[in-house]
Write a structure and sequence with these properties.
Elements (H helix, E strand, L loop, with lengths): L1 H5 L2 H41 L29 H6 L6 H4 L4 E2 L17 E2 L10 E8 L4 E7 L6 E2 L6 E2 L4 E7 L6 E8 L14 E9 L6 E8 L7 E7 L7 E6 L9 E5 L5 E7 L4 E6 L12 E3 L6 E8 L2 E7 L10 E5 L7 E4 L2 E2 L3 H5 L5 E7 L7 E8 L9 E9 L15 E4 L23
Parallel strand pairs: 1-2, 21-25
Antiparallel strand pairs: 3-4, 4-7, 5-6, 7-8, 9-10, 10-11, 11-12, 13-14, 14-15, 15-16, 17-18, 18-19, 19-20, 22-23, 23-24, 24-25
Bound molecules: beta-D-galactopyranose (GAL).
The site of beta-D-galactopyranose has 11 residues, from strand 9 and strand 17.
Amino acid sequence: MARWLSAGGRCSWRRLVVCSLTCLLLLQLYSFSNRVSVEVEKMKLLSALHPFPLQEHEQVEGLILLPPFGLKYPHKINLNEEFLNASSTARTIFFPIGAVDPRGDAKNDKHYYRPGKTWLDTDGNPIHAHGGGVLFDEKSMTYYWYGEYKNGPTYHAQETGTARVDVIGVSCYSSKNLWAWKYEGIVLAAEEKNETHDLYKMKVLERPKVIHNERTGKYVMFMHIDDATYNKASVGIATSDSPTGPFEYLHSMRPNKFDSRDMTVFRDDNGTAYLIYSSVRNKEIHISPLSQDYTDVLNETARALVGHHREAPAVFKYRNVYYMVTSGCSGWAPNEALVHEAESIFGPWETIGNPCVGANKDFRAATFFAQSTFVIPMPGAGPGSFIFMADRWNPNDLRDSRYVWLPLTVRQRNERYVGLPLWSRVSIFWHKKWRIPVRENGESNYVIDLQA
Ligand code: GAL
């Protein structure tokens, strides 16, 4: 030791420096390999938790954005501006060419959802069920999708400048597998001549939702009814003996005298149903129970998310907890979704954050350039799996608005995966392409009859 030290101060100092540097390097290497293995473990855990193949998640990241004419820095492209710009060269990112076609016999394409692509019905026509909702009819074991039939020209309303399509009516599509949809026609049509009628074509009919009343046997439709300036702010009610209509329009009302714009209905396990709507000029969400026959609201109003300015509510329940996905208020332009949860439907509602996972930052901050409309359980996919239904509005041509249906999963409150970024309790996963889990023989787990 003495020799080593005395072998000349210069030499021992050099050795000391080399030793320290080597130690530092080894330490760095060790912590780096540790971090890598933690990341690998996280990815494994994510894959195990996720009911679908992960490889489709990041496909949006890889998109090459062509800079619009004169723009030198493609990385500075503002996706929100491009989305709203009808002549953007990035248009096909949001409104991809090609269609999901249930008539095709290409096996590899069967049952695949392709969010954002045109979606054809079983006759080969684009599906028009915007701002819609799905009812599973237990009697016929069939799904019915109701929505706004927007197959008309877009123009700007005189008073407000808002892009609009005149009301045509509420459409209905039926399916056994939630993928191949048969057009059942317009089940509630616009009024062509009578200008004072709620359903007059120059007014507004949006976000229709249908629930079934077991006591009366009636199918009850609720919808947002408004005038062209969005000042009537009411809810309309129609009923039918059959899920495929025709629906008889009863009237519109302001629930307990409150203004009501974007809305939905939710039927609880015990048969009690609720109207959930944006109120007080969209500042808050109101929840009111429906009467036993579902054609009126009871004199009871719970006020939630007061001052939060949320709309497009989509409500679902999992293991006795209620969840609500909402959007911000920016008209047809997309914005960030938030999820709220409550142990009682009357609240208190707690905001738990943006559920969007995957794609890229801009897509997550804009709900994948779509707006919530409804959530349904995902058949055959195990507990906590749902389908999130959203509209990718095209304000330049509303008839070309698309659908973004994506897997949504809910974890139990006590399931905490510490350190997993982007993994919130309620998650909506971006997929360029996905399908509901299928059996080994290629059939969907739950399919009763593929010939929808
Ligand atoms: C949105 C609303 C849509 C439609 C649109 C009109 O905020 O969610 O349903 O009303 O505004 O600009």
